[in-house]
Specification:
heterodimer, A: 297 residues, alpha/beta, Rossmann fold, 8-stranded mixed β-sheet, two-stranded antiparallel ribbon, globular, B: 735 residues, Beta-Lactamase, Alpha-Beta Plaits, 4 domains, 8-stranded mixed barrel, 5-stranded antiparallel β-sheet, 24 helices
């Protein structure tokens, strides 16, 4: 129409070229469903990035999904930065789970289940892209540590943890934790599964099978630090100084490990607000630093 | 309009009642109609409420269904639902606690269950109203009537992925429909406690069947009830107002229209029977409506004007009536009044009790002709005045025509009638008629007839007529009462006799003449004959004493004289009179004044010059027209006739006539002749002196009625020249 040509006075060939360039630059997100075991399936969001950049497997926090806002920010930014992104949602023994699982739900999953699923996703991912950088948020980083410790894979190039938590419940009361562990082990040996109700992570009333709860109880802060320190995989952690979910001194303890620790001043556990960009800068710097097991004090 | 038609017209009171009844019926109809409209409107509103209630129920059920559908969607997409279908070891905990605490289902839910892909429940619950162990084949949302409650079961599939994928099993929810309906809203029409489903207990139906079989009651609608009540109260109040208005209107109609109109009508009706409307009018109080009162006033004014007009008309009518029945000249009643009164008496059968008196002035025609009509009229007026004043106050005087008067005495009293007649005659005779210039005495003849059983009106009149004619005879005493004595002459005075006289006048040959000889006293031989008139009809002879009263009464004197002359001429022609004798012909005073009569006498004398012809003038008929009479007498004498003054001494002014008129003979009346025989000395001396006077005056004298020789000698001694009477011979009959 004459008027539109008047406002967009580009020629025809120039317009077509711009459209193709735009389409080529856009990352294409895919929903990927993966059979875990039996009828149990899990899904992930996969965005293929540039081949000269590592594929990033982003794992959500405890009982969350890849729809968690912090995860969504990571997916978007990394995809925008040209990284291949795979963001699975752990099934937590719920087929094709899409919703975050409340603390009050009946939890039948455990750390081995999460590690196995992570392994399946790593296998799926390395068939398509590599090398792989594991990127976890909150307790997801602990689950990535669990996976890496149990199934070290050379395709894994680096592990980056954002707002890494100390581990399971009763982290500061070892005696009580020990009694709980014994009790849970006794329950786990019963032929009929039973449910135990104890605090886990940020859940104060976490109802879970004894076996599942035991697997989480194994990951104490010390166990986390040990896993970091004993691992040969380059690791880096991005922490917020304003993260109130963490115990006092946790960041400092992390900084004592071999992993590089970025502290975003004032950032909360979810790296929101203006701290999102600081976190992103740190993340991108770590992704660009392929060999950098260095610690920033 | 006649009375029957008037009676058929409705009365205003009836119309008023009909009007009020009709208005009442209309009000009742109006009330019934409006009450019915209120009921219909209320019923329509209630039906609309029922419809709205139904719509409200359907909408609420649909809302519940949508909400249940949302719950189903949430549950089917809930990760933990899929979790329980795959790992059932904690299903009871999930069913009894977890799913309720998750907030996905309302607290009002009765039960919840998961079914495997075959529709078998994962684990039965111990709920009072549990979900069925096996899911119904039709699935979806079903409703069941259980113990008066409507339970709703909703079944939905659960897939591995949202919207499809592998079927993992089914979810099931159980609700109480009323509880669910109560959750959504406040209901305007629907009474939730009355909701029932009209299907057998335990039967599962879908939503459409539920709606069809749904029954419920409406919530009370205070506004609608209040509105209906308000309408009804308003309507009742309006009806009461209408009723009061109707009652007041009826009272006003009765008070100010119907009753005044009826009173006005009754007043008008009463006027028919009341003679004095003014008094009645004054007693009536004013009507309450000004227009009606004005109407009544106008009516009474009109009525009074009508009364005045009617009275004027009556007076005028009475005047006309009186004028039509009064003689304009005398003021007494006329012939019409006479006839009407007689008919009234005849109709009342009072003829038998009445007496009829007829008055007739003697020689009135001669007076009229002699002195003129104005004198005649004065005489008639005086006679009427005399008779009227003489009669009794209640007696009416009628002028039947000319000089004839009559009166009717209602009571049959012969003595009174004759006394009244005598008094009338006396008053007439004593009246001074000379004031009108009439020198001769004016007399009247009176005939009286008394009613008697069986007498008819015509008979009484005829009898009085006969008596009056009889009274006119010279020998009569002027008052005659019809009786046996007059029966002899009465036939002659019948209509038949009168008709014969008229026939004779028309045909003189019917007259049978008698000739009485008049003797010359010197020779004692007949000198001439006097023609005496007879009428013979149907074998009966009518004599002069019956003829001349009729002739005088009928005033045909001149005509009769002509007939006599013609009869004498006939007898002369037929030699019925001896040729050597003369003939004397009686001529009335009227005839003497008639040129025709005198001409006929002159012609007769000229026709028979050798015949001695004497014209006798009846003295009693002479009048004041002496110049005319003298002229005719000269004419007769010049023709050769002798003129004789007849009945000298029986009249009133014989000496005056004798001195005034040039007659040849003086014929003394028979009454004077009888005085010579039977009178006293003085009377006889008067006769002798009169005879001497006449003789000395140069007249020849004739004595009539000589019946004896003594009388003959006396008249001879007195110097009479001629004499006649039965002494000599009766009259010759020429028939």
């Amino acid at each position: 129409m004459p008027m539109r040509y008047r406002f967009f006075p580009m020629s025809g060939p120039l317009f077509v070229a711009c459209l193709l360039a735009l389409l080529g630059g856009m990352a294409h997100a895919q929903r990927v469903t993966l059979r875990i075991e039996g009828p149990l399936t899990a899904s992930a969001e996969y965005i293929a990035g540039q081949r000269d950049k590592p594929a990033v497997l982003i794992l959500h926090g405890f009982l969350q999904t890849n729809e968690f806002p912090t995860v969504r920010q990571l997916i978007r930014h990394l995809a925008d930065a040209g990284y291949t992104v795979l963001a699975p949602t752990l099934s937590l023994n719920i087929t094709n789970r899409k919703q975050s699982l409340p603390c009050e739900a009946i939890h039948t999953h455990g750390m081995p289940d999460a590690a196995r699923e992570i392994g399946l996703w790593v296998d799926w991912l390395k068939k398509r892209r590599g090398p792989i950088v594991l990127l976890g948020h909150s307790f997801g980083t602990v689950q990535l540590l669990t996976y890496h410790e149990a199934h070290p894979d050379p395709a894994i190039q680096k592990l980056i943890g954002i707002s890494l938590v100390e581990g399971g419940p009763y982290k500061s009361d070892s005696a009580r934790r020990d009694r709980l562990v014994r009790e849970l082990r006794r329950q786990a040996e019963q032929p009929k599964p039973t449910l135990a109700n104890h605090p886990v992570s940020f859940c104060k009333n976490y109802r879970s099978t004894a076996r599942g709860l035991l697997s989480y109880l194994e990951w104490t802060p010390e166990r986390v630090l040990e896993s970091i320190n004993t691992s040969r995989l380059p690791m880096a952690f991005i922490m917020g100084s304003g993260d109130e979910r963490l115990d006092q001194g946790w960041i400092q303890r992390l900084q004592t490990t071999s992993a590089k620790t970025h502290v975003i001043q004032g950032a909360s556990h979810f790296m929101d607000g203006q701290h999102e960009f600081d976190m992103l800068d740190s993340l991108l710097s770590e992704l660009n630093d392929k060999n950098g097991p260095a610690t920033t004090k | 309009m006649g009375q029957p038609q008037q009676n058929k017209l409705p009365k205003v009171s009836y119309l008023s009642i009909v009007y009020n009844v009709l208005i009442g019926l209309l009000l009742l109809l109006f009330a019934f109609y409006n009450w019915r409209q209120i009921e219909l409107t209320s019923q329509s509103l209630y039906e609309r409420e029922a419809l709205l209630g139904k719509q409200e129920a359907v909408e609420a059920i649909n809302t519940v269904a949508k909400r249940i559908l949302a719950i189903e969607k949430s549950l089917s997409e809930w990760d933990e639902s899929r979790q329980q279908l795959m790992y059932r070891q904690f299903y009871p905990l999930w069913r009894d606690q977890r799913v309720r605490s998750a907030g996905l289902v309302p607290e009002t839910i009765n039960d919840i269950a998961l079914y495997d892909r075959n529709g078998r429940i994962l684990a039965p619950s111990g709920n009072k109203e549990p979900m069925p162990d096996n899911m119904p084949r039709q699935g979806g949302t079903l409703y069941v009537n259980e113990g008066g409650h409507i339970h709703m079961y909703s079944f939905f599939p659960i897939f591995a992925e949202s919207g499809g994928g592998q079927l993992l099993g089914y979810g099931g929810l159980a609700f109480d429909l009323v509880d669910q309906l109560r959750m959504d809203r406040q209901y305007r029409y629907l009474d939730l406690s009355t909701i029932r489903m009209q299907v057998p207990s335990g039967t599962l139906v879908d939503r459409d069947s539920l709606i069809k079989s749904l029954s419920f009651e409406l919530l009370p609608n205070p506004n609608l009830d209040k509105m209906r009540s308000a309408y009804q109260v308003s309507f009742i109040q309006l009806s009461v107002v209408f009723l009061l208005v109707q009652v007041v209107s009826a009272w006003l109609l009765q008070r100010y229209f119907t009753r005044p109109l009826r009173e006005l009508s009754e007043e008008i009706d009463s006027l028919r029977d009341l003679e004095n409307q003014e008094d009645n009018y004054c007693r009536i109080k004013p009507l309450p409506i000004r227009e009606l009162e004005e109407l009544r006033q106008s009516f009474y004014d009109y009525h009074n004007r009508l009364l005045d007009l009617n009275q004027n008309l009556e007076r005028s009518s009475q005047n006309f009536y009186d004028q039509a029945r009064r003689d304009p000249m005398t003021g007494v009643f006329n012939r019409r009044a006479y006839d009407e009164d007689w008919h009234s008496l005849d109709d009342a059968n009072k003829i038998e009790q009445c007496s009829l008196i007829l008055f007739d002035c003697d020689h009135f025609k001669a007076i009229n002709d002699s002195y003129g009509h104005h004198v005649g009229d004065s005489v008639i007026k005086s006679l009427a005045s005399i008779l009227q004043s003489t009669l009794r106050g209640e007696d009416r005087l009628y002028r039947l025509g000319g000089d004839e008067f009559a009166t009717v005495l209602a009571r049959n009293d012969a003595d009174n009638a004759e006394a009244i007649a005598a008094r009338c005659l006396e008053q007439v005779l004593s009246h001074d008629f000379q004031q009108f210039g009439v020198i001769e005495p004016v007399t009247i003849s009176i005939g009286i007839a008394h009613g008697n059983p069986g007498v008819a009106l015509g008979d009484l009149q005829k009898q009085a007529d006969i008596a009056m004619y009889a009274a006119k005879r010279p020998t009569s005493r002027k008052i005659e009462v019809f009786g046996e004595r007059l029966n002899e002459v009465s036939p002659l005075l019948t209509n038949k006799s009168i008709s014969a006289i008229y026939q004779t006048i028309q045909d003189p040959f019917l007259m049978e003449m008698h000739y009485q000889p008049v003797i010359d006293l010197k020779t004692r031989e007949p000198a001439y004959v006097e023609a005496l008139t007879r009428i013979k009809i149907d074998g009966e002879i009518i004599r002069p004493n019956e003829i001349f009263p009729v002739v005088q009464a009928r005033r045909v004197d001149a005509e009769f004289d002509q007939a006599v002359i013609q009869a004498v001429q006939r007898d002369l022609e037929f030699k019925r009179i001896p040729e050597h004798l003369g003939v004397s012909i009686n001529v009335s005073a009227v005839g003497l004044l008639s040129s025709k009569v005198t001409d006929m006498l002159v012609y007769l004398k000229l026709a028979y010059p050798e015949i001695k012809m004497v014209v006798e003038i009846t003295e009693t008929a002479l009048i004041d027209q002496i110049e005319q009479a003298t002229l005719h007498i000269h004419k007769l004498r010049e023709a050769g006739c002798l003129v004789a003054l007849d009945d000298f001494g029986s009249g009133y002014s014989s000496l005056r006539y004798l001195a005034s008129m040039p007659v040849d003979l003086v014929k003394f009346d028979i009454s004077m002749m009888r005085l010579l025989e039977k009178g006293d000395v003085r009377q006889k001396e008067v006769i002798r002196e009169v005879a001497r006077l006449v003789t000395n005056a140069g007249y020849k004298m004739v004595a009539e009625g000589i019946e004896t020789h003594v009388m003959l000698e006396q008249v001879v001694g007195l110097g009479f020249d001629y004499a006649q009477g039965f002494l000599f011979e009766p009259a010759l009959n020429t028939a």
